[in-house]
Amino acid sequence: MFADRAKIFIRSGKGGDGHVSFRRELYVPDGGPDGGDGGDGGDVIFVVDPGLNTLTDFRHVRKYVAQDGEEGGKRNCHGANGKDIILKVPAGTVVKDAETGKVILDMSNKTEPVTLLKGGRGGKGNRQYVTSVMQAPKYAQPGKPAKELWVTLELKMIADVGLVGFPNVGKSTFLSRVTNAKPKIANYHFTTLNPNLGVVDLGEKQGFVIADIPGIIEGASEGVGLGIEFLRHIERTKVLIHIVDAASTEGRDPIVDIEAINKELRQYNEELASRPMVIAANKCDALYGEDYETVIQLLKDEYEPKGIKVFPISAVSGKGVEELLWYVNKLVKEAPDEVIEFAPEMDVEFMDDPELPFEVTKSEEEEHVFLVEGPRIEKMLGYTNLESEKGFAFFQRFLKDNGILQMLEELGIEEGDTVRLYGLEFDYYR
């Protein structure tokens, strides 16, 4: 079974906690701190495997979790880092947030592994907190939390040319004639239930990859029929061949069919309507005399002034097919070489869960110290690299947008006071 969509849960590893311990040494206060740092959690990494062409494996296993980092140990022992988890996907896979549908990552042009979820950093052991005024710290930093996410994997085929049209117009027959592909062919609707790929070899190092997309019907962009399941495969194609039944063997008007399909393409993705298109008027061997001339001329009068060339062909006999292929080959060569890539619409580095609680309080044990705590704060810090300019800017926006700065001011914070968030300390300035 061809699988081009899967929903999975991914989670990076939690950072190991820092350790609190003291060595026993004469004349050293409390024996001297020697708690080691925790290990970093494992990453979730995506990599393209050229040997894969479906997402079938992800239909059977839905949960992918990297290993947690180990806790630090005494005698300055560093905890072991967690093992990464590597997810192998076929070229053309797009990773989307399952809840919003926004694109996170497109693996179409990726030749190197991509880290999607970074493991939590290991916490610092108590030896890291030694200062001139605190020789024996009795606390360590907890490891940063893991990052987790439900994502949808979508496979969008990488083909130069896409065959579109209503069911039973001869797309599979055409593909079988021009390539070595062996699609299922029969005289009923939706013979093609899965996209089929083939390579057109024109000789002289000329040719292209072509995809037969299951028949699109009216309403496909809204989920009617099979079309919505496979429209995604058209998005990467450079050229579209619109195959129509010129002989109207099922009583359909070819021009009405073309307009109906173009409407579905526009509704699914407006940019698709601007792709180079060629009309293949198929089954022309079933037309005779004036009927042939009339139908073909009507199609040419309607579409060639719009820059869409019409080719009368017969996928069964091969009539007109070679001329069509060389023209399409020319359009493919004129199109940009790079594979169409979908830009990320969200950054998982800066994920926040507004439903998690947090609290802002004034320390009862230390003067001029204010505490910002809670699961939401802990998760935010785990997703944020405060050492980067981008991460620190996000941190500042988070404090302001969630009213934390206002809460601190209401509690009486003054310039120079300390704000503490899970072992991190900042001086407050307006």
- Looking at how many chains there are and whether they match, the oligomeric state comes to single chain
End-to-end distance: 61 Å
DSSP E strands, number: 18
List the secondary-structure elements in sequence, H or E.
EEHEEEEEEEHEEHEHEHEHEEHHHEE
What is the spatial order of strands in the main beta sheet? 10-11-9-12-13-14
Question: Average pLDDT value?
Answer: 81
Largest sheet: 6 strands, mixed
Question: Would you mind describing this structure in some detail?
Answer:
The chain is α/β, with parallel strands linked by helices and 430 residues long. The chain has helices at residues 57-60, 171-178, 227-230, 254-268, 289-303, 321-334, 375-383, 389-401, 404-410, and strands at 5-11, 44-48, 63-65, 85-89, 93-97, 103-106, 114-117, 148-155, 161-164, 196-203, 206-212, 239-245, 277-282, 309-312, 359-362, 369-373, 418-421, 424-427. A hairpin with a 6-residue loop joins β15 and β16. The chain is elongated.
Provide a brief overview of the structure.
Helix content is 21%, strand content 22%. It has helices at residues 57-60, 171-178, 227-230, 254-268, 289-303, 321-334, 375-383, 389-401, 404-410; strands spanning 5-11, 44-48, 63-65, 85-89, 93-97, 103-106, 114-117, 148-155, 161-164, 196-203, 206-212, 239-245, 277-282, 309-312, 359-362, 369-373, 418-421, 424-427.
